[in-house]
Amino acid sequence: MKKDILEILKSYNLELNDQEVANQVKEIIASDFDKLYTVENLKKNFSLIDLTTLNSNDTHARAKSFAENVNNFQNDFDMPNVAAICVYPYQVPTLNENLKAEGVNIASVAGVFPSSQSYIEVKALECKMAVEKGADEIDIVISIGAFLEGNYQTVYDEIVAQKEACGKGHLKVILETGELKTATNIRTASILAMEAGADFIKTSTGKVPVNATLEAAHIMTQAITEYFEKTGRMVGFKPAGGISTAKDAIEFFAISNNNLGEEWLNNKWSRIGASSLANNLLTELHRIETGEDKQITYF
Question: Which domains occur in the chain, in start order?
Answer without folding.
Answer: 5-290 (3.20.20.70)
